[in-house]
Amino acid sequence: MFVKHYFYPTVKEFMNQHVSKLFLTSTLRDAVVLFQHNKTKLIPVVNQHNQLIGIMTHSALFKALLQDISMDESIAPFIKHQVVTVKENDYLYDVRQLLTKHKVGHAIIVDKDNCVSGILDTTNIIKAYRSKSELLTSKLEMTKK
Description:
Blueprint: H1 2-6, H2 11-14, E1 22-23, H3 28-38, E2 42-46, E3 52-57, H4 58-66, E4 85-86, H5 92-102, E5 106-110, E6 116-121, H6 122-144
Parallel strand pairs: 1-2, 4-5
Antiparallel strand pairs: 2-3, 5-6
């Protein structure tokens, strides 16, 4: 519990805020373009109000391509609807526990209206822990002087 109370950064401080999105009307071609441009493993799928519907993963895209489905077909059958979501003000410690519990490496950040505001993945959490570790080390060195 000591770690949780001392390690208090929130999701908002470390999440990826600039997130490309797909829509139910998006095609597999649209997904390929976004995956290639963003070098990411997932893209949120939203409705016209930016509310989360699900995610499109690169593995789902590969599956569609291996089935020789036309690039002009909808992404709809390949959307994953069971998605781990968190809020911007959630603590990173709690989110790390949630990701571990669900055995996933990412969470979609949503606001009170279920609108997508970002993505948090394990890389973000590692950066946060490294940042906090460096800060603590610096403080410890200052107290030794």
